[in-house]
Amino acid sequence: MGYVIRLEKLSKTYGSRRGLVDLDLTVGEGEVFGYLGPNGAGKSTTIRLLLDLIRPTGGKAWLFDRNPSEHAVDLHRRIGYLAGDFVVNPRQRVSECLTFLAALRGGVPRQRIEDLAGRLDLDLSARIKTLSKGNRQKVGLVQAFMHRPDLLILDEPTSGLDPLVQQTFLDLVREARAAGQTVFMSSHIMTEVEAVADRVGIIREGRLVALEAVARLRDHAIHRFDITFAGPIDQSAFAALPGISDLTIDGPTAQFALAASPNDLIRVLARHEVASIRATEPDLEELFLAHYQPADGVQENSNA
Fold first, then answer.
1. Domain map of the chain by residue range?
2. Which end of the chain, N or C, is less packed with Cβ atoms under 10 Å?
3. 157, 86 in Cβ contact below 8 A?
4. What residues does the ABC transporter domain cover (predicted)?
5. Could you tell me which of 100, 102, 94 has the C-alpha nearest to residue 118?
6. Are 49 and 10 in contact (CB under 8 A)?
7. CA–CA distance from 13 to each of 55, 67, 72 (Å)?
């Protein structure tokens, strides 16, 4: 598998403000990569550097093994991009806007545009200035997906969308991956990334703090347990477990979080009579919060 995106020590500063610091990252062909972080963490800065909308302070970036600053026009032909602040001519009708953007791409079958609009419940006859934020976002999604690009770069793609349309968007991402397309998707919404991403990168204050497959991230995360016993509970045995926290024992029920292998827990449970046990797998929200603890004294940058 070749690399569609390759970054080495990529950095960007805005005067005295930090934007991105020594970012090393690769994204493979046909991969869906989730890029997580709150507003101001550096997600949009990374994307703008990839697209040569801004230039790096240091380091290098390659798309399809080519330098974006030297081959921007050719590379952009292979990319579908949805900006976090998607803006188009408000006086146009949706169909006019998409037809114009399709022509810039060398032409897109009308049926393809209509199919995407239908799936997203987008009125092609409406004027853009009359659309809600969510419906304007649908226009952005159609223009990003319609020419079936080799690489989709999506910055906060579900902003303003209702839950049903969010599910349709996730279906489009799955279909893109099945067709061999690569998707680089920035977000601060954990559930949507968890649903489709092969790997996840978490960015904190301009630095990449985690980079793993979703399953491996969960392996290192805190699991929560709710156990009901049929007999007495040895509270001291549970309190002594490595990695245990938030231990609460109320009558026959024990609740706690465990950030360690369950081996020791199983040994303790074997000495008790257990009536029921429920373990909750962590979601990406918890994983994200575990990795994103802003450093003391660091001022967040308003540039996402």
1. 3-78+149-218, 222-281
2. N
3. no
4. 5-230
5. 94
6. yes
7. 10, 20, 22
- CATH entry 3.30.70 includes domain 222-281: yes
pTM: 0.78
CB 260 within 8 A of CB 242: yes
Contact 113, 142 (CB under 8 A): yes
Dmax (CA) for the chain in angstroms is 73
Q: Which CATH architecture has domain 3-78+149-218?
A: 3-Layer(aba) Sandwich (3.40)
What tens-digit pLDDT sequence spans the chain (304 residues)? Answer: 589 999 999 999 988 888 899 999 999 999 999 998 877 889 999 999 999 999 999 999 999 999 999 999 999 999 999 998 899 999 999 999 999 999 998 899 999 999 999 999 999 999 999 999 999 999 999 999 999 999 999 999 998 899 999 999 999 999 999 999 999 999 877 778 888 999 999 888 899 988 888 777 666 667 889 999 999 999 999 999 998 999 999 999 999 988 878 899 999 999 999 999 998 866 556 666 665 555 443 333 434 4
Contact 49, 12 (CB under 8 A): yes
One-character DSSP codes across 37-83 = --TTSSHHHHHHHHTTSS--SEEEEEETTB-TTTSHHHHHTTEEEE-
Please check whether the two domains, 3-78+149-218 and 222-281, share a CATH topology. no
Give the number of residues written for the chain: 304
Q: Rounded distance, CA 71 to CA 69, Å?
A: 6
Alpha carbons 34 and 31: distance in angstroms, whole number = 10
Separation of alpha carbons 101 and 144, rounded Å: 10
